[in-house]
């Protein structure tokens, strides 16, 4: 089976899965900073290594790429055109891992917030959502999908 992308492109695409400090993540961090919310980054002690940890509010934030984490109903979460089976298995694995990690975090008393890559574009909405963080109750109701 041939693929539409070459080796270099493929490995670049693969490496993006683990890429930290992505543009959407930086945007979220900027807004938190503006709001005066203190956070830490990429805590590897926690399940799923959350992108942002707000210890004071016992809140973790994942900034998810829509494609890799399969944002439901999002046009960026398109189905790959080649090696379909391989990619779908891989992508479904990502989603299963996300679900597992988020459940573990909630069990440990963390509030889990997922911010999708495509949501970061609307800066006003993002700011409003982050501004509400301190008043939200903790627990599973913070999870969005
Ligand atoms: Zn999306």
In brief, what are we looking at here?
It contains 4 helices and 4 strands.
Structural summary, described in words:
The protein is of the alpha+beta class. The chain has a single domain (22-135), classed as Endonuclease, Chain A (3-Layer(aba) Sandwich). It has helices at residues 7-18, 23-34, 84-107, 123-131, and strands at residues 40-41, 52-54, 59-64, 111-116. The chain has a 4-stranded mixed beta sheet with strand order 1-2-3-4, with helices on both faces. A hairpin with a 4-residue loop joins strand 2 (52-54) and strand 3 (59-64). The chain is globular and about 45 Å long. Mean pLDDT is 85; it is low at 138-145. Residues 66, 71, 74, 76, 116-118 line the site of zinc ion (ZN). Zinc ion (ZN) binds next to loops.
């Amino acid at each position: 089976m041939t693929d539409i992308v070459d080796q270099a492109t493929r490995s670049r695409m693969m490496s993006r899965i683990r890429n930290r400090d992505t543009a959407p993540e930086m945007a979220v961090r900027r807004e938190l900073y503006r709001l005066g919310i203190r956070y830490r980054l990429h805590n590897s002690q926690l399940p799923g290594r959350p992108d942002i940890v707000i210890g004071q509010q016992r809140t973790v934030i994942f900034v998810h790429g829509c494609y890799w984490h399969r944002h439901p109903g999002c046009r960026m979460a398109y189905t790959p055109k080649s090696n379909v089976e391989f990619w779908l298995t891989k992508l479904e694995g990502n989603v299963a891992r996300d679900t597992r990690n988020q459940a573990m975090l909630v069990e440990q008393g963390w509030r889990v917030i997922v911010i999708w890559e495509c949501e970061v574009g609307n800066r006003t909405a993002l700011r409003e959502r982050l501004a509400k963080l301190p008043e939200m109750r903790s627990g599973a109701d913070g999870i969005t999908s």
